Amino acid sequence: MTRTALLALALMAGTLATATAADPNTAHPHQGVLTPYPTPPTAPTLTADEQAKLLAGDVVRKQTQGDSGGRGIAVQDIHATPDVIWSKILDYPNYPTMVDGVLECEQYAQSGSELKARFKIGAMGTRVEYFIDHEIHTDANWMTWTLDYTRESDLDDSVGYWLIEPLADRPGYSRVYYSVAVQMRGWVPGFIESMIARKGLTQATEWVKAESESAAGH
Length: 218
Fold this sequence. Notes:
Helix content is about 25%, strand content about 35%. The protein contains 5 helices and 8 strands.
């Protein structure tokens, strides 16, 4: 997760976000401070101009400010079917080779629609480790997540979602929606949190597009 948004912070925040707290044997200090996304998540309404941008291959960003940091949505059309796209989003063991800045990624628990995974990202000497609890419904083409609050993460909190829509008017194409909200421990300047929402959103959909279209032969 998601995850390039956090790298953007690591690149710019340096000593502000140095990891010191992650511990799989200790519960997180709280049970969530950011508002989780609804289940299932809902797609935002797109204007005619935004739909034209998607048709041209561009990313559409819708950014809002809420909770204790930036929250936005990135939308991108991908030349691949939902099953191919999900195969990349859920390929956690290969995140280090697919996603810039992800050093380690492993699934450590799964039961029904719930999947838990550990992530470690890093840049310029900064390491951030965190544990994510996913609710996955690929049959309905959505997933949401929060931190796994039974384990202590370097993040104070994180919530997000993926939503995929097959495009009936463009066979073989899907519209992908991604959103994430992140709160770091300690004080982080507001402009850094805004950068997370702006840059991280775009990077997340770009790696999924590249990997999915490659797998689909496009």
